[in-house]
Amino acid sequence: MSGYLLEMKGIAKRFDGVPALDGIDLAIRPGECIGLCGENGAGKSTLMKVLSAVYPHGTWDGEILLDGQPLRAQSIRDTEDAGIIIIHQELMLVPELTVAENIFLGNEPTLPGGRLNYPAMNRRAEEILRELKLPDVNVVLPVKNYGGGHQQLIEIGKALNKKARLLILDEPSASLTAAEIEVLLEIIRDLKAKGVACVYISHKLEEVAAICDTIVVIRDGKHIATTPMQQMNVDRIIAQMCGREMNQLYPSLPHEIGEVVMEARNITCWDPDQPQRKKVDDVSFQLRRGEILGIAGLVGAGRTELVTAIYGSYEGAYEGEVWLEGSKVNTSTPLKSIDAGFALVPEDRKHHGIVRDLSVGENITLSVLDRYSRMSRIDGNLEAREVGEQIRRLALKTASPALPITALSGGNQQKAVLAKMLLTGPKVLILDEPTRGVDVGAKFEIYKLMLELAAQGISIIMVSSELAEVLGVSDRVLVMGEGKLRGDFVNQGLTQEMVLAAAIGQGNNHG
After folding, report:
1. Domain that holds residue 307
2. Which of 280, 393, 439, 443 has fewest C-beta within 10 Å?
3. Whether the Cβ atoms of residue 220 and residue 24 lie closer than 8 Å to each other
4. What does the alpha-carbon distance between residue 318 and residue 271 come to, in Å, rounded to a whole number?
């Protein structure tokens, strides 16, 4: 016996003749946590879909051994029966079902006669949630009653209930707060101590460094290196991922900041579920030409609500005025906002940014289709030319513009959404969490593009949960807390501590 729980040998996978994986090896021991690192489109998720039989045995080349024996799984059910559980980036919960029903989905205990044993389910679900430090969650309530962070931990609860021997976590902390991330890392440490192996995929390399024993780096579908974490640090992981040193995470490009171009006046938003409660409370601010304005704040501060209200896509009731270049403009719907000169790249690209059934190219031109219409037909040549230009401009990795958008990695889907909004020729570009689920290389490219756009005179509003990012690229920072504007700082000598102090209502609110 090799001592390995699982070995993947020479794994190769092609899509439409294009290699996505090219001879990848990976081996993992019981109780070991492997950090699987690579830029967007490197093949990380594809490799894990091979391992978990989303792509069944026979649709790829190579060999997978479990306990030294060949694993030829034809379905996710086969791999789950073998103890291999994958937690996808997109949660697989059913919103209308209770927390307990979700935790037992597909593995429900029954009473004689086939009825579900709800008392046993609820008891076991409560035990699991105590392990997950979620004792305040009521297991008989629908899972939709709880926020993204709680739902992510409930998804992990589902995996624990399936007696995982190997747990694959794909971007598990994307929607978690700092406190929830600490809980998650503690859970993984407990699992490792019990002999459960983990594969951890995350662009948050500080987490990878904190929890992983071994780092496996892949690039463009090829295996680059397998190294003990003791011999690595975040900079070395980045260098292996990108094939180059990332001397600075944030590019610098001088850009001139001009006159006030946009003004938001007295924006107030009410909670769609609790109409008495304000999510944004009388917020006003100005934005200058060529300025990058960062909006920071803790989860629930009202940042997304503020920018979606300005853009006309907020789901609840809201009021306020938006002025552009000295005139009051109608931004009551996204279409009117686009006509006025605004563009928004939304926080949730899966639901609000892309149309899953369309190709890469069709997604990119969606917001300006009238530009290519000739009577009742679309000028395909002109459309294809502009799509090609956008793909080159944003260094978007796709084998073809005709590929389904869902075949792209998260970071490349994000670039497609960005390309779609840039084609509208905006004066004000609003970016809500523009680098969420995006690797360091793609992040750098997005920051660089933001600076280039600012240098062209486009004004940018960027909402981000990553304080380092806000401070790394913004000219000025607004800080929100509990729906109110708590700070407006010029980004010179501004620290994360100063921003956090303003977010929780402490300290000087101007700088």
Report:
1. 257-341+427-511
2. 393
3. no
4. 9
Nearest partner of 288 among 259, 263, 264, judged by Cα: 259
Choose among 277, 350, 265, 288: nearest CA to 317. 277
| pTM tops 0.90, yes or no | no
Same domain? For 191 and 105 the reply is yes
Count of Cβ atoms closer than 10 Å to residue 392 Cβ:
9
Q: Does residue 1 belong to any structural domain of this protein?
A: no
pLDDT in tens, the chain (511 residues): 468 999 999 999 987 777 889 999 999 999 999 999 987 678 888 899 999 999 999 999 999 999 999 999 999 889 988 999 988 767 788 989 999 999 998 888 888 888 889 999 999 999 888 887 777 889 999 988 887 778 888 888 888 888 889 999 988 887 677 777 888 898 899 889 989 999 999 878 889 999 999 999 998 889 999 999 999 988 888 788 877 555 567 888 889 999 999 999 999 999 888 888 899 999 999 999 999 999 998 777 899 999 999 999 998 899 999 999 999 999 999 989 999 999 999 887 777 778 888 888 788 887 777 777 777 777 777 778 888 888 888 778 787 888 888 887 777 888 888 888 888 889 999 999 988 777 777 788 889 889 999 999 999 999 998 888 899 999 999 999 889 999 999 999 998 888 888 887 765 656 5
- The residue type of 173 is S
Task: Note whether residue 276 is domain-resident.
Answer: yes
**Is 38 inside any structural domain?**
yes
